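FAQ

Q: What does a record look like?
A: Structure on top, sequence underneath. For example:
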């Protein structure tokens, strides 16, 4: 399968926006305690935040495509400078953040997500990042498996119990 990875262009806006929404729909569908939802206005707020982070923090979006058709994306950016408080507990570093990654369902399991992450990782290294942060929901086991398989390790674990 000849998958190409390229930089985002304005013609990709609708694909990335719909993928962003599909990603959230997927997370809603696999939430075992049904706490995640998507209310009216979700896309405008959270996609707007994604775009602003990319635009204002040396960010980049990459598109994976097959036969000229976009099939996935990844977006990442350089985190703000560490605060004095953060430096009290963490070594000085420049952190890159992978904010969102998505591959359309029929192309999952073909190592496309790993290739997208590798591409954004190379970009973040070029911006002098020495570590990368990515997060996912604990119940998104396929994402966890992917991230661990390419070298990420768990750093923080939050737990939730539904009581009503």
């Amino acid at each position: 399968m000849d998958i190409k990875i390229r930089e985002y262009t304005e013609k990709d806006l609708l694909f990335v926006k719909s993928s962003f929404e599909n990603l959230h729909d997927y997370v809603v569908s696999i939430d075992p305690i049904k706490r995640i939802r998507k209310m009216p206005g979700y896309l405008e707020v959270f996609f707007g935040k994604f775009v602003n982070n990319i635009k204002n923090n040396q960010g980049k979006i990459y598109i994976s495509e097959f036969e000229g058709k976009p099939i996935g994306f990844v977006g990442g950016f350089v985190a703000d400078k560490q605060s004095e408080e953060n430096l009290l507990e963490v070594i000085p570093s420049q952190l890159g953040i992978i904010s969102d990654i998505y591959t359309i369902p029929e192309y999952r399991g073909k190592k496309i997500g790993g290739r997208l992450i590798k591409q954004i990782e190379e970009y973040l290294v070029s911006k002098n990042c020495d570590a990368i942060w990515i997060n996912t929901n604990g119940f998104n086991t396929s994402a966890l498996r992917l991230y661990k398989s390419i070298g990420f390790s768990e750093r923080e674990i939050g737990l939730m119990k539904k009581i009503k």
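Q: Is there anything notable about this one?
A: DSSP finds five helices and five strands in the chain.
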